[in-house]
What does this fold into?
Amino acid sequence: MKEKILVTGGTGYIGSHTVVELQTAGYEVIVIDNLSNSTVDSLNGVASITGITPAFEKIDCCDKLALDGVFKKHQDIKAVIHFAASKAVGESVEKPLLYYRNNLVSLLNVLECMTENKVPNFVFSSSATVYGQPEILPVTEDAPVQPATSPYGNTKQIAEEVIRDCTVADANLKSVILRYFNPVGAHPSAAIGELPNGIPNNLIPFVTQTAIGLRECLSVFGDDYNTPDGSAIRDYIYVVDLAKAHVIAVERLLACANKTNPEIFNLGTGKGLSVLEILEVFEKATGVKVNRKIVARRTGDIEKVWADPSLANTELGWTAKTPTSEMLSSAWEWEKKLRDSR
Ligand code: WQD
It folds into this structure.
């Protein structure tokens, strides 16, 4: 067996897809999650794909004692991928303290446990939200971090600063920060996928729930942006391509002696698509119409953002290559599977 990797938030959407790729690459994976926004069923999905059920402990990363217990129990953890965090932008505006406490205390506990247990390699799940509305597009990693437009986004900015300061101060800590654009889709097996709690905040689950008849109509938040068709533009990246980048990031850390600074990478396709273009691709790929109406812009939304992924392409040898039509078809297959099983 290759090295042991601890994945916090590993029963979640991106976490579970990353566990699949880590296991496929031969790593032994330990998953911890407090199951506040996911279910342990996702690990059955993982096992149905890889044939391996990862070790799982129901742990809240804000509980330092319990977290340290995992490090003590699994003596030879070689790297940590830290997904565990609250991630709903709108909810963070209503409940800022919950977000600052959960997202920052969990990060501090993980970093402290790593130092105390001499685990040197850290991969952090960050977000393109740290860029706000970039002045120049495509956005590169050295673009200025703009004042956060939500407590969620602010927790990602603060987390990046904490990781930078700790990596500079501690010669034994090496870190990679991955800034995700918009993760979408589900594993081609349809054994794992996105499981939004209640009414989806994000576009794609709302699209598939509308397409399957769970939702009456998709609200398109604004068609008066300064974009070709007026709707907002994002860089939608396939969740499996995103997951694969995490394995490469772990391998990069395991292979290198030391790093004085975190390495930061944009994980995007480099291509921006508008909401209306996404709907067009979805309908063409699935043959299913999506009932939609144009409504007012959503507070806090930015107009357009897409990645310059060239640093990840060259440094990590990683490219997001799955076509948008395939991403959206996989989301549709997952939605149908979910409804069949309910
Ligand atoms: C995408 C586009 C909406 C829903 C956020 C976070 C980011 C990450 C992903 C956590 C926007 C439009 C959406 C709907 C719509 N979160 N939309 N109708 O806001 O780009 O990114 O979620 O990791 O960090 O910032 O993603 O999917 O919510 O929206 O028109 O019902 O779809 O206005 O233009 P977003 P999203």
Summary: The longest strand covers residues 121-127.
